[in-house]
Structure formats: structure tokens, C-alpha cells
Amino acid sequence: MLTPEQLRSARYNLTVLVHWLPDGEEIIRLRSVDAQVSYQKLTDRFHAFFLKGPRNIHQITLADALWWVWQQYPAHRRLCLTNLDTFTLGTRPT
Full-prediction pTM beyond 0.70? Predict the structure, then answer.
């Protein structure tokens, strides 16, 4: 339902909200993990995410959103794993 420009803007704004950067710094783009995609890898990453990741209500919201994307959009499963890795490691993209 969003135009490509609206989608780009929404992703940018969400990234800024989740990972605030001082003015002038560029947002680092996530690169997809190279691992084979499997349900076991997803559950392993969720386990690490809840044990080592951020400690706030947004952790549950992000997990729920990634689970929904995993189920609805199989083509984006690698990005779900990438996001879990990124947020588990101190919410800083590598």
C-alpha cells in the first residue's frame, strides 16, 4: 500500500528511532547473514536474543514482528536472522 518512497522513508525513520545516531552520521545498512536458513537457526537466534539482547518491552515487539515476517515472507528469512543477530549484539549494526 506504500509507494517506494514512503517505504524508504518509513524504514529510515524506524532505523533512526531504533538506533539513534548524532546528526551527520550515516545509517549503516544491514547485510544478510550467509547462514543456511532453517527454523532451528531462527529458534537458536531467538534464544540468544532473549538472553543476551536488549531488556525492554520493544524486545518482545521486535521478536513478534520478525516471527510474523518469517512466516509470511519466506524470501526475507535471511534478513530476519540478520536482524536478530544485530539486535542481540547490543543493537549496533556491523
Answer: no
Other Cβ atoms within 10 Å of 48 Cβ, number: 14
Q: How many helices (H) and strands (E) does the chain have?
A: 4, 0
Instruction: Report which of 93, 74, 72, 94 is spatially closest to residue 18, judged by C-alpha positions.
Output: 93
Burial class (CB in 10 A: 0-12, 13-18, 19+), 15: middle
Cell numbers describing residue 87: 539486535
In the numeric block, which cell numbers belong to residue 43? 529458534
For residue 56, the SS3 value is coil
For residue range 28-51, list pLDDT tens digits in order.
566 667 767 888 888 988 888 888
Provide the grid cell at 60. Answer: 518482545
